[in-house]
């Protein structure tokens, strides 16, 4: 799977997002078919599922290599490892890991607080966060496009085009966030019925989804600028401000915990989600926006 992830990243760099979709769909279909055959007719049970998944993953990896090796050779890049390239990748990867750790720490801290506030709060939060993750994948499509397009413009030395691309992608992201937010708000009163018979939990889910809906334009702005700076290779900044954002968020989160503990369920989930979807995402928006309006991230190719 690491080889598959690397291949997908390489194809994104070529602005090719269709091929990963085709390979992923084929791999999913092959995985389902292999599991169906190996688990029941062959009788391998759980081992059959593991074998089927492994075979499907190796098939995807081989397909990617078959498509990418000619491109790599055409670009005059060595197929073997190069120490200098490995050092650069390790440097970028370490900063990206720190960025990811700060994001995951914020998510885990929110779950810890939700757990301490009671099972009903945790249940409502889990449903709302599942929707947040799903919508994040939707909005992240724009961030992936921003990575590839900004990398192309900066690599070609087109500063004005890169700046224009940032404006266009930001407008698209915010606009798309408005649409997604409106749909989420419209669904908020009805969605809880699919998850719980409890009126208290259902009401809390609705409140959380309304906060999520309002925050979607902000989330779109954050995701696309995150993609822009990744495409520009500004990962050190992303990692460092990730620490700053976490430092802003954690005190607010604990303040919410101490303030709303023992209160009404709707008030608890309201402030918990205001902290996460507005304060934390707002801190990310501020730190990313400050960087994006400047020029230090714009390293131009020759």
From TrEMBL:
Chief site of localization: membrane
Segments crossing the lipid bilayer: 21-40, 46-69, 96-115, 127-150, 171-192, 204-225, 237-256, 268-290
An example Pfam family from this entry, by short name, is MatE
The superkingdom listed in its UniProt entry is Bacteria
Q: What are the record's GO terms for cellular component?
A: plasma membrane
Membrane topology term reads: Multi-pass membrane protein
Which GO molecular function entries does the Swiss-Prot or TrEMBL record give? antiporter activity; xenobiotic transmembrane transporter activity
Q: Does the keyword Transmembrane apply?
A: yes
InterPro entries linked: DinF-like, MATE_fam
Keyword check for Nucleus, yes or no.
no
Localisation: Membrane
The record's keywords, sorted A to Z, are:
Membrane, Transmembrane, Transmembrane helix
Family under the similarity heading? Belongs to the multi antimicrobial extrusion (MATE) (TC 2.A.66.1) family.
Q: What is this protein called?
A: Putative MATE family efflux protein
Q: Which organism is it from?
A: Garicola koreensis
Provide the taxonomic classification: Bacteria, Bacillati, Actinomycetota, Actinomycetes, Micrococcales
């Amino acid at each position: 799977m690491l080889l598959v992830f690397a291949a997908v990243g390489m194809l994104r760099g070529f602005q090719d997002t269709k091929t990963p979709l085709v390979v992923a769909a084929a791999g999913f279909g092959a995985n389902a078919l292999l599991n169906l055959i190996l688990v029941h007719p062959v009788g391998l049970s759980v081992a059959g599922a593991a074998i089927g998944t492994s075979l499907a993953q190796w098939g995807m990896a081989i397909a990617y290599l078959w498509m990418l090796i000619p491109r790599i050779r055409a670009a005059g890049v060595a197929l073997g490892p190069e120490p200098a390239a490995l050092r650069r990748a390790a440097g970028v990867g370490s900063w990206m890991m720190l960025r990811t750790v700060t994001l995951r720490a914020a998510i885990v801290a929110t779950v810890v607080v939700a757990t301490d506030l009671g099972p009903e709060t945790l249940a409502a939060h889990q449903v709302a966060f599942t929707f947040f993750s799903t919508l994040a994948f939707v909005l992240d499509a724009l961030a992936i496009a921003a990575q590839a397009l900004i990398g192309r413009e900066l690599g070609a030395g087109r500063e004005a085009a890169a700046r224009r691309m940032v404006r266009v992608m930001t407008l698209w992201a915010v606009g798309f966030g408005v649409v997604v937010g409106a749909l989420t708000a419209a669904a908020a009163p009805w969605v809880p019925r699919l998850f719980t018979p409890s009126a208290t939990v259902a009401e809390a889910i609705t409140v959380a989804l309304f906060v999520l809906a309002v925050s979607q334009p902000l989330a779109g702005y954050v995701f696309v600028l995150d993609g822009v700076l990744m495409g520009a290779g500004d990962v050190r900044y992303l990692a460092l401000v990730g620490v700053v954002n976490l430092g802003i968020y954690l005190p607010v989160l604990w303040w919410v915990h101490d303030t709303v503990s023992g209160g009404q369920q709707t008030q608890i989930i309201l402030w918990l989600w205001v902290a996460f979807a507005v304060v934390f995402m707002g801190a990310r928006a501020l730190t990313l926006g400050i960087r994006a309006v400047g020029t230090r991230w714009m390293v131009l190719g020759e």
